[in-house]
Amino acid sequence: MKVKYFEVVRTAAVILIALFLAFIIISLVSEQPLESIRIFLWEPLNTKGHIGNVIEMAIPLMFTGLAVSLLFKANLFNLGAEGLFYFSGVIAATLAIHLTLNSFMHPFVAILAGSLVGALLSAIPGILKAKWNVNELVSSLMFNNILFGIGLYILNYKLRDAQAFAAVSFKFEQTAMLTKLLPGTRIHTGLIIVLVLIVAAHFFLYKTKWGYEIRMTGANREFAQYSGMKTAKVIILVHLIAGFIAGMGGSVEVLGMYSRFQWSALPGYGLDGALVAMLAKNNPFSVIGAALFLAYIRIGADQMARFSDVPAEMISIVQAIIILLISAEQFLKFWKNRMLLKEAQRNV
Amino acid sequence: MSSLFDVIFTTEFAFSVLRVTTPILFAALGALISNRAGIINIGLEGIMLVAALTGVIASAYTGSAWLGLTGAVMAGTLIAGVLAFFTLKFKTHIILGGVAINMFASGGTVFILYLLSGDKGSSTSLPSKVLPTLDIPLLKDIPVLGPILSGHNVLTYMSILAVFVVYYLLKRTPLGLRIRSVGENPQAAQSVGVSVVKVQYTALLLSGFFAGLGGAYMSMGYLSLFTRDMIAGRGWIAIAAESMGRSTTVGTTLTSLLFGTADALANALQVLKIPAELIGTLPYVTTVIGLVIYAVSESRMRGKKLKEKG
């Protein structure tokens, strides 16, 4: 065992513990635990449709996971992706309803508008942090609720279709909706967009000067400042980019998966993004795997709720355990120390 | 406009302000204690939700509202204990720990509710109990004040009492002194022999205790049953209130009352067709503005001091 593999092993251990816990919960509540566990583990891969579900679910998680990763990388505890995701979705939906464009320009314009709004709104906590050191966590949490209130107002008073039976918007124009990639699934072109974004983010973070400045500011803002970086600018820049990505995620999700806007509560993808970022250790490429994993266990839980007697909400308990353990610095630390000691002895 | 005043200047409205302030005030006091010890507990929303459900379950199975309340408070304290264990022992990041608690609560409560009642929406099938309301003798006969102050749920009176308890606790007791010193400078506190971890444990448990009271009020006073996601942002408003109140007991209490008024207003104005969605954002908007004003004046002061020195 090498120390450098420690983080990988630790992540694997956390996932195993969480899955083990899931099995225990299932065994406690289910009449036929083995069958339930089988559904939970295998059903997401069983049919093409289910694999499609996993990938569809992973798309928004990749967007928010990537956005949160960038913020965390700059050591900014901003949880605003939640509100931005929602509000940009409202913006994209509004344009999807009211614009008349061809089927290439329509989603392009709607998504771009949603992303830009996301970037601008995200910049507010960023500027407040950079200029006056306003705690970005508290301000971003407040913004989540503000954006949700305004978004819900727009839905209920401006977009709502009185003919429909539920609180949903008018139908989007056919031209606005994203193209499906695979027949038999709902996987849409958003998948390509997010994968391109992830590659771009990796390149940006590790191969450009700006990316370097973000990482340095994250590692130690004061040191970065003394070495001549304008950290205030860097903080605003990260907020702009992260807001852009989160906003794009919300817009893509709305246009890719729905034909009407129908979120009357925050969808939760922003906070899930924090979980994805943690599992991915804030690394853009790892975001793909982390998002797929999370989507996998969720679809598994959904299927289990459908075909057995275990409610799907079980998964939120598993998620909570993963977050608590994965961000626990001390968890398995003794083991790392022992490995370090062994390696040191070998080198002597 | 005159109809607006008709709504506000009534004893019913003043009564409803106290009614909706109660859960916010409890949770805000919880946020206050943990923040003074230097740890921000953003899991309040989730703690309240778990406590609300536990209160309903415990009172339904024991047949006693008071045992229900005890159960709710114990559940709140327990969840805060789990958060404390992970953040203080395992060094989980406190914010992420709070996110985990909220995630656990929003799904976990539905999970347990479904197992016990077969319903994912509300606890209508559980025969849960409600905490009593109190008519205060003498006071209830005074015009205007009587209808406003008398006849509230017993927890509403406890929340007012809790303000004084927390004030006394933080200002006048050795524990309060330790909590404040740990929050202001943990190293200095450690150096004079205060166990930082122990104090932070206590503070987090207390914050869970108060949030638990707030949660119990929601399902056993404000309403008489548990419904899915019934806390509906009150935990966040409490954090906002604490932050607007600049981490003082008096400030936190006053902002809680202010936000409670905004909440009551949102309910009352629905009659006048003023969108509740927008009024609901008022506490958060006020908090952001408050934070900015404070931070700007703070950085101005620092700038001045630097200039004077230079």
Q: What does the secondary structure layout of this molecule look like, with pairings?
A:
The complex is a heterodimer of chains A (348) and B (310).
Chain A: H1 6-29, H2 33-46, H3 48-73, H4 81-98, H5 105-132, H6 136-159, H7 190-207, H8 209-219, H9 221-226, H10 231-257, H11 269-279, H12 284-307, H13 314-326, H14 333-347
Helix pairs in contact in A: 1-2, 1-13, 2-3, 2-12, 3-7, 3-10, 3-11, 3-12, 4-5, 4-6, 4-10, 4-11, 5-6, 5-10, 7-8, 7-12, 8-10, 11-12
Chain B: H1 2-8, H2 11-36, H3 44-62, H4 65-89, H5 94-117, E1 133-134, H6 145-149, E2 152-153, H7 154-172, H8 174-184, H9 186-191, H10 196-222, H11 234-244, H12 249-269, H13 276-279, H14 282-309
Antiparallel strand pairs in B: 1-2
Structure description:
The complex is a heterodimer of chains A (348) and B (310). Chain A is built from 14 helices and no strands. Chain A has 348 residues and is an all-alpha fold. Chain A has one domain (31-309): ABC transporter involved in vitamin B12 uptake, BtuC, CATH 1.10.3470. In chain A, helix 1 runs antiparallel to helix 13 (314-326) and helix 2 crosses helix 12. The mean pLDDT of chain A is 92. Helices cover 75% and strands 1% of the residues of chain B. Chain B has one domain. Chain B is globular. Chain B has helices spanning 2-8, 11-36, 44-62, 65-89, 94-117, 145-149, 154-172, 174-184, 186-191, 196-222, 234-244, 249-269, 276-279, 282-309, and strands at 133-134, 152-153. In chain B, helix 2 runs parallel beside helix 7, helix 4 runs antiparallel to helix 5 and helix 7 crosses helix 8 (174-184). The N and C termini of chain B lie far apart (55 Å). Chain B is an all-alpha fold and 310 residues long. The chains are: A mainly alpha (348), B mainly alpha (310). At the A-B interface, helix 5, helix 6, helix 11 and helix 13 of A face helix 5, helix 11 and helix 14 of B.
